Amino acid sequence: MADEVETTIVTMVFDTTDPDHLLQVLAKYVVLTRGHPGCRNVDLTRSFTKADRYVIIQKWESPEAQAAHFDSADMVEMAQACGGVLASPPSIDLLEGISAHDLA
Fold first, then answer.
1. Residue 40 contacts by C-beta under 8 Å, 6 or more apart in sequence?
2. Residue 12: which of 61, 53, 49, 57 has the closest Cα?
3. Is 5 helix (H, G, I), strand (E, B) or coil?
4. What is the C-alpha to C-alpha distance for residues 53 and 43, in angstroms, rounded to an integer?
5. Residues 6 or more apart whose Cβ sits within 8 Å of residue 82
6. φ, ψ at 96 (rounded to 5°)
7. Which of 66, 62, 71 is CA-nearest to residue 93?
8. Structure confidence by residue, pLDDT tens digits, 53-78
9. Which residues partner with 78 through β-bridges?
10. What is the pTM of this model?
11. How many helices (H) and strands (E) does the chain have?
């Protein structure tokens, strides 16, 4: 029997006062994150229902890979670059992937 793959999912919700600046910061972060060990996928999305809200959705191979990423220089750089452009602190949630998978 093959080993079951764990999937750890992270959502990060950002409400901004400066959408143009935040979009540049988050787009760079997403590109860099895709190259981190254990990253299965990361997407940057914008809300249809709440103006100036951006959501990042990440999938990681394991909780350990996700935790290592959150301690990375790229994560710290992104957080620092968000200074002064957020309407409120970001909402971050860590989820267990029960039926999450990537299509080949």
1. 7, 59, 60, 61, 102
2. 57
3. coil
4. 14
5. 14, 22, 25, 90
6. -90, 125
7. 66
8. 999 999 999 999 999 999 999 999 99
9. none
10. 0.88
11. 3, 4
